[in-house]
Fold these 2 entries.
Entry 1:
Amino acid sequence: MSNNVIIALDFSSKQEVETFLANFGEEKLYVKVGMELFYKEGNSIITYLKEKGHQIFLDLKLHDIPNTVKSAMRNLARLDVDMVNVHAAGGSKMMQAALEGLQEGTPEGKERPLCIAVTQLTSTTEEVMQKELMIPLTLNVAVVQYAKLAKESGLDGVVCSVHEVALLRQTCGEEFATVTPGIRLASDSVDDQARVATPEIAREKGSSYIVVGRSITKASNPLHTYKLVKEQMEGQTV
Ligand SMILES: O=c1ccn([C@@H]2O[C@H](COP(=O)(O)O)[C@@H](O)[C@H]2O)c(=O)[nH]1
């Protein structure tokens, strides 16, 4: 079974990544490369992490006109990562174009990366969504609508918070992946996140994957904290 704890490598350089990964010895991880690291290091960071045997979620959240997203995805597919994403707010044509680009760019004999769509960022509250973004819906209704659109467009799942997972299981089915950031241990600071939950609650609600950044990357003992998170996600007691 695929590792369902994804560590967000929100670092500013390859050197910082190397220092962090040294904590894990030969352990094979599922890691997330986001904008900060990818815009600094480019494709070489992907090559480095793949050579180390890690699975990779390349979190660039594409959001542009369909033709541009299709061409960009064709290039990302050539990197042979495991998961990529778009913003569902780009609409169904954009999401379908993303999939076409991925299919075209996936090397012969390789599996197409999973393609998921961000519904509402886990830093967004219902109040911000309604008052600033002027989306006149409850957060749950908005997330379900974006997720249904992603599913109808052929995508493999969505990014959402743990709090919407049960609802999405009912509306989009058990096979549709829910990738949930905004994960915090009970004693952690929430920081800039709004819709947070512990790994234990993520397991109870049925998240397919959790994404954990600062709780692990800023921990005094990252390996110990990673194991604690995994144990909570797998339902074991420490
Ligand atoms: O809705 C979203 C989409 C992506 N993220 C990303 O996940 C990590 C979370 O990091 P923490 O340090 O655990 O808060 C980060 O890379 C975000 O870019 C998200 O948080 N919410």
Note: The chain has one domain: 5-234.
Entry 2:
Amino acid sequence: MKKIGIMGGTFNPPHIGHLIMANEVFHTLELDEIRFMPNAIPPHKEHSITATSTQRLKMTEFAIKQNEHFKIEPIEINEGGVSYSFDTISKLVESEPDVQFYFIIGGDMIDSLHTWYRIEELVKIVQFVGVGRPGTLGKTTLPMMYVDAPLIDLSSTFLRNRLSNGQTVTYLLPESVETYIRKEGLYGTK
Ligand SMILES: Nc1ncnc2c1ncn2[C@@H]1O[C@H](COP(=O)(O)OP(=O)(O)OP(=O)(O)O)[C@@H](O)[C@H]1O
Ligand SMILES: O=C(O)c1ccc[n+]([C@@H]2O[C@H](COP(=O)([O-])O)[C@@H](O)[C@H]2O)c1
């Protein structure tokens, strides 16, 4: 059976926190590949999304380009609307029955996992893999496999603020992603 990691996110923008956690899980669980899956409309996010789906997809493509084991899963962007993981994972499991999917999440998502849409059914069709995140408990009573990874206190929100204030983001996200952000004038960079 193939073992595929799903790294779901809003990626507004993607950063090294996402890449580090995906890579750590890839190696620890000896996965065959990791698919980065940008959502269309995230179920629980309060802030308005300041980059389009296409721009977030593009940034995610740039972010993973150097790693041959990292791929894009465009299903949620292609379908549009609110991206409920239960709906998405059900479709993936149906179309690829010979794959065990591992859904990778950080501490904040572990803490709020019990609030996800149809979560009791979702945990039966996908294995959740949790990694720590500074400022979160990273605890749940739902089935969870934990992977130890270096803690990175970094978020897309922090990067959007840095960019809109004209402050440095060097080394916090891939250079190609920063170049794209500045070319498109995202997050107040123009
Ligand atoms: N620094 C980090 N450490 C651990 N997990 C992280 C980190 N940054 C993001 N994640 C996890 O990556 C997934 C996707 O996160 P997302 O794209 O929403 O980034 P974010 O930095 O949390 O964004 P925002 O600041 O806009 O809320 C989530 O499961 C989240 O918990
Ligand atoms: O399905 C849900 O109810 C649900 C609720 C919150 C988050 N998710 C998914 O979890 C992943 C990380 O979410 P976020 O908000 O940190 O980008 C992303 O793939 C989201 O679509 C899914």
Note: Strands lie at 2-9, 33-38, 70-72, 99-106, 127-131, 145-146.
